Task: inverse folding
């Protein structure tokens, strides 16, 4: 994403703290006025002393550049809206692993599922977790047990002063 030419509000806040410090304000008063911690103000003042106002400017982000371009990142929600089954998955559930496979297939970029989770969070999407159930599960039997047997068991609960078992 291209950085806007104007300065960020955080940078403006640092510069305001530096200006207040130069006019004689105390660090605790600056922190209170700007709604930040005294530690943050202390760091900003140190940066101001070391590099002047230029030391308070926003620094470039450290770390490796993003492998998925911003344009591709913006295309991802549209792809996910098509549904998991349109990509050959069984069921309409989007897990981090499945989204990672779609990213690799569509954009040629491979991510660990944990990182896919962060990408989804940035896009205001939430991964879903499948419910794991036994293959031999018998829904009709479970429903019958809930309707017939469970009410009987609930009725026979021991009194509060009665021991649960002998």
Result:
């Amino acid at each position: 994403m291209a950085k806007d030419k104007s300065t960020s509000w955080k940078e403006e806040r640092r510069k305001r703290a530096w200006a207040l410090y130069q006019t004689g304000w105390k660090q605790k008063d600056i922190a209170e006025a700007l709604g930040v911690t005294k530690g943050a103000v202390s760091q900003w003042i140190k940066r101001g002393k070391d590099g002047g106002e230029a030391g308070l400017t926003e620094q470039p982000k450290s770390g490796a550049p993003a492998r998925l371009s911003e344009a591709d990142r913006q295309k991802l929600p549209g792809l996910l809206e098509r549904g998991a089954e349109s990509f050959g998955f069984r069921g309409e559930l989007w897990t981090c692993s499945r989204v990672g496979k779609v990213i690799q297939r569509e954009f040629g970029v491979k991510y660990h599922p944990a990182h896919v989770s962060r990408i989804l969070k940035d896009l205001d999407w939430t991964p879903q977790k499948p419910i794991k159930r036994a293959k031999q599960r018998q829904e009709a039997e479970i429903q019958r047990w809930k309707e017939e047997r469970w009410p009987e068991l609930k009725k026979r609960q021991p009194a509060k002063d009665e021991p649960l078992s002998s």
Notes: Residues 1-5 have pLDDT under 50 and may be disordered.
